[in-house]
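Hi V.,

Quick status before I head out on leave. The structure for the redesign project is tokenized and pasted below; the design run finished overnight.
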């Protein structure tokens, strides 16, 4: 006798999806309005900074420190603006998720999903007779996958027999996921980005490349040199030291940057897209890791995301954010120093000459 499958939920799917669609639409509209307001404020702050910069670099004696306020405000607005845009886009993906769900409930799904024609097998026993693939097919009605691997798995299930145990396990997993609307919404929101941006082939090739090795002590040397540049520049601006220590620090940093440039450039170019892909995948995996499942199939799938007892999402996040961000910081050192030197030269023209 087959195991018992969970009973149907008492929640009305159409009403639940409609309520959530209304809520997500309102959230999207709110973030869109906020996005426009912040954009206008950023424009005003930018124009104010340009105006102040005009007086700083003109014959009028205005301290370059006046540029600090608009720069800090603009950077803070840019960070907040990016968060607002992310929330708006996430709400838009949630809206599309519930719209597709309502289309299926109202039988308006035909011609709006994946047909699965690329998975059609010639001379299959029943695929053509039962309209497994194509417009208005069983695959189009069922497919909510957001990755090619998910679509391929569904196509394989529809074209091959399974044991009664496997069928029951899938039904139990489906029954459990049916009531986890928050999880399905979160996965759909992340997976839409994964589907459009992640390239599994390039990610696999990058993961198999040998590591680029830096000389021992490189990290410490870079930290010390950058700290010396910042300290000497600060002391120079405060009229405590002359420009000689600052120029010496700039020279040392430039030499170190030229020595590390080939390796840093290679790593950043190779890891730019894979790091972003890993970051996206870590968000998707984190959604699953935070769940507690009862069905055997879902528990097994969740356990496969762990490596030696460690969840996969922290490892992905470390690889995507840690290494690449540190390398970007190292490569940006010369740019920061150049900007500091420009400000120093500007301010020195308004002071008495130093000896």
């Amino acid at each position: 006798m087959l195991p018992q499958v969970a009973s149907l939920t008492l929640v009305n799917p159409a009403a639940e999806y409609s309520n959530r669609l209304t809520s997500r639409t309102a959230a999207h509209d709110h973030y869109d309005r906020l996005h426009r307001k912040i954009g206008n404020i950023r424009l005003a702050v930018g124009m104010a900074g340009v105006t102040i910069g005009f007086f700083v670099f003109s014959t009028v004696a205005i301290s370059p420190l006046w540029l600090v306020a608009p720069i800090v405000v603009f950077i803070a607005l840019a960070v907040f603006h990016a968060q607002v845009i992310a929330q708006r886009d996430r709400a838009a993906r949630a809206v599309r998720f519930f719209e597709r769900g309502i289309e299926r409930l109202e039988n308006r799904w035909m011609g709006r999903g994946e047909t699965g024609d690329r998975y059609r097998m010639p001379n299959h026993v029943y695929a053509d007779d039962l309209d497994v693939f194509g417009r208005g097919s069983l695959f189009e009605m069922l497919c909510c996958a957001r990755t090619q691997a998910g679509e391929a798995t569904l196509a394989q299930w529809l074209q091959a027999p399974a044991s009664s145990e496997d069928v029951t396990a899938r039904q139990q997993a489906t029954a459990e996921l049916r009531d986890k609307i928050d999880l399905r919404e979160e996965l759909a929101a992340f997976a839409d980005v994964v589907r459009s941006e992640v390239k599994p082939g390039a990610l696999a090739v990058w993961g198999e490349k040998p590591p680029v090795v830096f000389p021992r002590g490189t990290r410490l040397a870079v930290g010390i040199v950058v700290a010396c540049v910042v300290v000497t520049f600060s002391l120079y601006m405060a009229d405590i030291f002359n420009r000689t220590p600052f120029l010496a620090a700039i020279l040392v940093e430039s030499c170190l940057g030229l020595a590390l440039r080939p390796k840093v450039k290679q790593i950043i170019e190779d890891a730019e897209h894979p790091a972003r892909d890993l970051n996206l995948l870590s968000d998707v995996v984190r959604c699953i890791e935070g769940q507690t499942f009862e069905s055997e199939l879902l528990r097994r799938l969740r356990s496969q995301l762990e490596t030696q007892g460690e969840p996969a999402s922290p490892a992905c996040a470390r690889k995507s954010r840690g290494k690449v961000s540190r390398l970007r910081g190292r490569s940006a050192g010369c740019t920061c120093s150049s900007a500091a030197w420009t400000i120093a030269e500007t301010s020195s023209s308004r002071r008495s000459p130093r000896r």
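Above is the designed sequence. The chain has twelve helices and no strands.

G. will cover questions while I'm gone.

Best,
W.
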